Amino acid sequence: MENKHIQLFKSIWTNLCRFVLAAVFVFSGFAKIIDPWGSFYKLQDYALAFGALWVPDFLLLLLGVLLAAIELITGLLLFVGVRRTISTFTALVLMSIMTPLTLVLALTNPISDCGCFGDALILTNWETFIKNIILLGLSISLYRRRRGILSLFTNHTHWIVSLYTAVFVAGLFIYSYRYLPIIDFRPFKIGTHMLSAMEMPDGAEEAVFETYVLMEKDGQEKLFDLNNYPDSTWTYLDTQTKLISKGYVPPIQNFHMLDLESSEDIAQDFLANSGYSFLMIAGDLTQADDGEIDLLNEIYDYSVDHKYPFVCLTASQEKDIESWSDRTGAEYPFYFTDEITLKTMVRANPGLILLKDGVIIQKWSYHNLPTEYDLSDSLDRLPLGQITDHSDFKKILYVIFWYFAPMFMLFGLDLLYRRRKTK
Description:
The protein is of the alpha+beta class. 49% of the residues lie in helices and 13% in strands. It has three domains: 2-178, no CATH class; 200-245, no CATH class; 258-385, 3-Layer(aba) Sandwich (Glutaredoxin). The strands form two sheets. The protein has a six-stranded mixed β-sheet with strand order 4-7-6-5-8-9. A hairpin with a 2-residue loop joins strand 8 and strand 9 (359-365). The two termini are 33 Å apart.
């Protein structure tokens, strides 16, 4: 009787480890695979922090996609209980690599967020390290007891499950890479009223920072606050800002639209406009894809005909703007905006945003821009001009359906096969 209780406990513990690891890997991999450009930008931050700017961009993008795909596939295989040796070993290897890496990040803090969950969940480096310590322990335990993982599928169907899982993950990546992330975890998502997202609510406490200057004299370095600034015999080395108390931080920060000539910021006035307006997003015009430029020019002509404001936001230099205009025949006005903000707004270069009364109601990559058939009338008379239901919950259910519906069908066929074999 005692042995049965011990075996039951071991079985429960093994499968508890399995589902916890599966949930974390699926969440982490999914958040990154549907936002491949976000993973690429995070790896660029790593390359900058560790002085590895020599790594080509395509390798950073490939590395980000491979890591996300491996995480998601491993998590799904753990969840359905197939390829037990491979999935548990992969989980153990990943955690064995990530745990010491996140310890280095926690100690040195070169970047504030490791990006392990993309933009879906932001953890500090120390929170990430503690999380990885727990997951490493679970992965060790699970690998040692992998034979106790329960599965609904027989061994002869494992290859079908594995193949479909890989195809499913590849499909998520291709769609999100070509178009836009299926789920938008960033502050510029559809339905956002931009002005409201930029404001501090009444009564909200602002963050309090304290600034220090690092000075040097006679080989001695010392920090001074601004109220205790030293005399001119000290040499300035660096400025450091420390967070004293964390207050409310608006979802949208540092959004500006600077006029090329006057450097006047027109963001507040532009976003306060009633009716429809278009924002073309092209962070780097030297790297922007001009394959659909005729379509963008047609949308601009359409906006002029219907008196809808159409502007391009970029972080490019004036000479690059002039080159783009000469090459593409662009007649729309350009405004300067921070490059990081533009990358956050739309994961495409170029991309397009449609606003109505300052609310984001549509977003497009250059691969799926509206055509003349979509813009056959004024926007208030078209489905395109109405905000649609973009519930993240429904999108998640849709993704779950497309993965598990074939799994249930395969399980049914597998069950029929087993019953026929036992007769």
